[in-house]
Write a structure and sequence with these properties.
The complex is a heterotrimer of chains A (275), B (425) and C (287). With 425 residues, chain B is α/β, with parallel strands linked by helices. In chain B, 49% of the residues lie in helices and 16% in strands. Chain B is built from 19 helices and 15 strands. In chain B, strands 1, 2, 3, 6, 13, 14 and 15 form a 7-stranded mixed sheet that branches. In chain B, strands 8-11-7-12 form a 4-stranded mixed sheet, with helices on both faces. Chain B has a two-stranded antiparallel ribbon with strand order 4-5. Chain C has one domain: MetI-like (MetI-like fold, Orthogonal Bundle), CATH 1.10.3720.10. The chains are: A mainly alpha (275), B alpha/beta (425), C mainly alpha (287).
């Protein structure tokens, strides 16, 4: 029984650790975003205000809403395409028999380890030549490519749980492979497919280096770049604005993380821990 | 089925590229302190009313390095936006050598624009590349010493002429002021690792008789005078402790300005733009600030880094004629005077300095004019950015106490030689 | 049979095209650029391996390579420890466990730049949270981003904060696969809580630990975002990661050398990945 008590104490400590470790920085972000001055700790008076939020939403020349729009559009498009393309490949690998399967699976795994910096120099020159700098396309195409390994691995693990007999039944009914995938497999794995889309969305929403290098202004710039370069838009780092913008931009991904935590955890672990 | 799917993919991509079509406006990239950019917006409004050319102001950060970065990216990619932009003196050589700037001579000739109204020495040093005018000065900057008149008077000190004066005075007053304000420091300046640090560095070394000697194919920083000056910069933070310990991490123009403006410092090194802000409504130091030349060492001279911003038109612009109209507008007597009165910028036009209204409202322009006589330029070469980046690193390392000044400059010298060897054409 | 191969080909084709055009081709392209003198203000000139020779003599580069390695090692170690703790907690059953799991995910869910901005302000010398707490408890102020050690620690902490959830989740999956019977057996054998963790849990989740290690190490080696935001590579260039070093050359207009640095990182990351993949026996797992 003594051991039970130790365990209880450890667990309580652990829960406290998780809460403080994970949430304290968020609390700080929110606190600063609602304060008149970021140095309220040493000033001693907090000065609650929602001006920071109103300003970043209202002041057009800060372009925060542009960044947010760009981010949501680009990430949304990327998530859907990447999931679809990943689904095709994952279907082939989990369903069809063909030579070189192992090589493909392993190379996709290896691809997920490509350092972005090793391609961004060339991409920049390439996108310049075809006039795509500062367009959505400049981000969408590389993002799709770089998120494909994740999409592929997650979907493959979902698909391989479904017995092949289901395919065979559909094939006997005269459907071709593509129809089988779209009409039979995807509906069955729909929750998994959706969680893949959400994860892929987060992946693109968070991307920084490509967006930094391939966009030049508010017409295509995404939230991470906007927030990183917010620096000095208003002289001394406008911490109130930065934190308000951060808080607003975090809302979509936080909602996804909270409501779909089970699915995300599944998706991540299925892709990574496959035994 | 497959075909339809691919068609879908294709259509969506076409659609998505349609989403980000580029507007056709004259785009002008401007950065600076908030009030400056706000004022630019007002000026642009006047320009639009007068010429019916629509302009989109691209607000850039204050931070010079980030401003450069957000210009280099589109220019390297031959983007047509921004059409024109403000450039720091230090970048112009690189921009010109890279062929990004449109020569303005045809326009100058066509409109018989009188360039002699502008500071001739600056134009010759900076704005002419291979015999062509590739930019125009908009305003001229130089480093100044701001001080708290009220505090100097209270403790009975006069304006410091030498660094020794400044040191003694700062140590004494800092000690006394600390009793009420524990965060009070004697002297704030720009020590973070960025371009501004090089400007500060150049002032310290030049005031000690040192310099960065820049000739064709060689740049020299390693000298006895330079080492001494660097040692002094470091001592300000670590030994005398009259400059805050975050000098070498966080102190850039705006951090320094607000620090001083909140009444937390006795002396401040900054550019002329701070004058107006220090004396604006609501500033705790309003009316208590004085300016003078930066101090010197016994064997040196008063020195001020030559800064300032120049306007250039992108070679890739699709609105070159409109861009030139805006250049003319910005360099007009009227606009230059407005910039001077409202932002306390030193006009690039000489005639403004004799304007009676300017003389009356801006008596400190006298000091500025004097400061101009003692400016020191940074090396003017296309690979200056590389040199500066390296210098920033070593100077910053030295003032943060990580390496000895002697070692720092020796290493910097070695690095610079490699850079020159590699990038000198 | 033949038909299936053809079908498989078409199904994998879109992925193949994207990967080929946007990942493989750019890497080869970067390598090609690295063979040139490609500077915005100098004539373009083929220099062969000239940039690579320069790389080997470039002290700054080796300093940043060293920093990147030590940084990766430190932050991955810290993440593994913290991740294990969080995974163990989340593996227990208690009220609000679902919410707790969601909470634990948050640092990882938000964009890294946002996390970096938050930490940057926490570390701020004069009015940051860290120094406020320190002053309150010990009267000290630490110049977090001003000293090499401080900046290093700050970055490791900020990076670990962001990525620990990822590690925790993967380890959690491993924990859930430990058969309860093994614990019961160990209990009967008289093993206490800690012995059970080291003797039963760890060996079973070892493969999962390796997976987490791989992903995190590779990710840490290419670290860019948080350093760009929090220190910008300072103080004195001490915290310039290899990615950031390469990026800085792009900005200076020297694409040739920037690409050389990035290709070097590519080789390192790939070597590590290759070694890990061999060690982790992915071949079997893939099938």
């Amino acid at each position: 029984m003594k051991e039970e008590r130790i365990k209880r104490i450890l667990l309580t400590l652990g829960i406290l650790f998780v809460i403080v470790f994970c949430l304290l920085p968020f609390a700080w972000m929110v606190a600063v975003s609602f304060s008149e001055t970021p140095d309220f700790l040493i000033r001693g008076n907090y000065g609650f205000t929602i001006k920071n939020y109103l300003d970043i939403l209202r002041l057009e020349n800060l372009h925060f809403l542009d960044y947010l729009k760009n981010s949501l559009l680009v990430s949304g498009i990327v998530a859907i395409f990447s999931a679809l393309i990943g689904a095709l490949a994952a279907y082939a690998v989990s369903r069809l028999s063909f030579p070189g399967k192992v090589v493909i699976v392993l190379s996709v795994l290896a691809l997920s380890m490509f350092p972005q910096i090793s391609v961004v120099g060339y991409l920049y020159k390439f996108m310049s030549n075809i006039g795509w700098i500062n367009t959505y396309n400049a981000m969408i195409f590389p993002y799709v490519a770089f998120s494909l390994p994740l999409a592929f691995w997650m979907l493959m693990s979902y698909f391989s749980q479904i017995p092949k007999e289901i395919d065979d039944a559909a094939l006997v009914d005269g459907a071709n492979r593509f129809q089988t995938l779209v009409r039979v497999i995807l509906p069955i794995t729909l929750p998994g497919f959706l969680s893949a889309i959400l994860l892929l969305f987060m992946f693109s929403f968070n991307e920084f280096l490509f967006a930094l290098m391939l966009t030049t202004d508010f017409r295509a710039r995404t939230v991470p770049v906007g927030i990183a370069l917010f620096q000095g838009l208003h002289g001394e780092l406008p911490w109130g604005y930065i934190m308000a913008a951060s808080a607003i931009s975090s809302i979509p991904v936080i909602l996804i993380a909270l409501f779909f935590q089970r699915r995300i955890i599944q998706g991540l672990t299925r892709g990574a821990v496959k035994q | 089925m497959m075909k339809r799917f691919f068609l879908l993919v294709l259509i969506s991509f076409v659609f998505s590229s349609g989403c980000s079509k580029k507007e056709s406006l004259l785009t002008f990239a401007v950065g600076g302190a908030p009030n400056e950019v706000d004022y630019w917006e007002k000026l642009i409004g006047e320009f639009e009313n007068r010429t019916h050319i629509r302009v989109k102001l691209l607000r850039q950060p204050t931070d010079t390095d980030i401003r450069r970065q957000s210009l280099v990216t589109p220019l390297n990619a031959k983007e047509k936006d921004p059409d024109l932009f403000l450039m720091d003196v230090a970048w112009i050589a690189q921009f010109a050598a890279s062929g990004w700037l449109l020569p303005m001579d045809p326009y100058v000739k066509k409109d018989s624009f009188d360039t002699t109204q502008l500071f001739g020495s600056v134009v010759h040093q900076v704005d002419i590349y291979k015999g062509e005018i590739i930019s125009m000065p908009v305003y001229i900057d130089c480093g100044l010493l701001y001080f708290r008149r009220d505090l100097l008077k209270k403790y009975g000190y006069s304006t410091p002429k030498t660094w020794d004066d400044l040191l003694q005075c700062a140590e004494k007053i800092q000690g006394k002021e600390r009793k009420n304000n524990s965060g009070f420091f004697g002297f704030v300046w720009q020590g973070a690792q960025y371009e501004g640090l090089v400007c500060n560095f150049i002032e310290f070394i030049a005031s000690n008789g040192g310099n960065i000697v820049s000739k064709a194919g060689s740049i020299t920083v390693y000298s006895k005078e330079n080492i001494q000056a660097l040692q002094f910069m470091r001592n300000l933070i670590h030994k005398y402790q009259i400059s805050p310990p975050n000098t070498f991490t966080e102190m850039r123009e705006e951090e320094v300005r607000t620090f001083f403006e909140n009444g937390n410092a006795l002396f401040e090194r900054n550019w002329p733009y701070a004058w107006k802000l220090h004396n604006s409504q609501g500033s705790p130091v309003r009316g208590k600030v004085g300016i003078t030349l930066l101090p010197k060492f016994d064997n040196g001279r008063h020195a001020a880094s030559l800064g300032g911003w120049h306007i250039g038109i992108s070679r890739y612009s699709d609105k070159k004629d409109e861009a030139w109209e805006l250049v003319k507008f910005i360099l007009s007597y009227e606009t230059q005077k407005k910039l001077c009165l409202n932002l306390s910028w030193n006009p690039a036009r000489i005639d403004i300095y004799d304007d009676p209204e300017v003389k009356e409202k801006m008596p400190h322009m006298e000091v500025l004019k004097k400061a101009f006589e003692s400016t020191v330029a940074r090396p003017n070469s296309p690979y200056y950015t590389q040199v500066s980046e390296l210098l920033q690193r070593y100077v910053n390392a030295a003032i943060s106490g990580k390496i000895e000044p002697n070692e720092a400059l020796k290493e910097a010298q070695r690095g610079i030689e490699k850079i020159v060897e590699r990038y000198h054409e | 049979m033949n038909r299936e191969i053809r079908e498989a080909f078409f199904f994998i084709l879109p992925l193949g095209i994207f990967v080929l055009l946007l990942m493989l081709l750019p890497v080869i392209g970067s390598f090609w650029i690295s063979l040139w003198q490609d500077v915005s203000f100098l004539p373009r000139k083929f220099t062969g391996l000239g940039n690579y020779f320069r790389l080997f003599k470039d002290f700054q580069f080796w300093q940043s390579a060293g920093f990147t390695l030590i940084f990766s090692f430190a932050s991955v170690t810290l993440e593994m420890v913290a991740g294990t703790i969080i995974a163990l907690v989340l593996n227990e059953s208690f009220r609000f466990r679902g919410i707790m799991r969601g909470t634990a995910l948050l640092p990882w869910a938000i964009p890294s730049v946002i996390g970096a901005r938050i930490w940057q302000l926490i570390y701020r010398y004069d009015y940051g949270l860290a120094n406020y707490v320190l002053r309150g408890t010990s009267g000290l102020s630490v110049n977090w981003l001003g000293s090499s050690g401080g900046a290093f620690l700050s970055l490791v902490l900020a990076d670990s904060w962001r990525t620990t959830p990822f590690v925790a989740i993967i380890l959690l999956a491993g924990l859930q696969s430990v058969p309860q019977g093994l614990y019961e057996q160990a209990k009967i054998d008289g093993a206490n809580l800690f012995q059970r963790f080291f003797k039963v849990t760890l060996p079973v989740i070892k493969p999962v630990v390796i997976v987490a290690l791989i992903f995190r190490t590779i990710d840490a080696l290419r670290v860019f975002d948080i350093i760009y935001v929090i220190t910008g590579g300072g103080p004195g260039g001490f915290t310039t990661s290899v990615s950031l070093y390469s990026y800085k050359y792009f900005l200076l207009g020297d694409f040739g050398y920037g690409s050389t640095v990035s290709i070097f990182l590519f080789i390192i990351a790939f070597t590590v990945a290759f070694l890990y993949i061999r060690a982790g026996r992915f071949r079997e797992a893939a099938l």
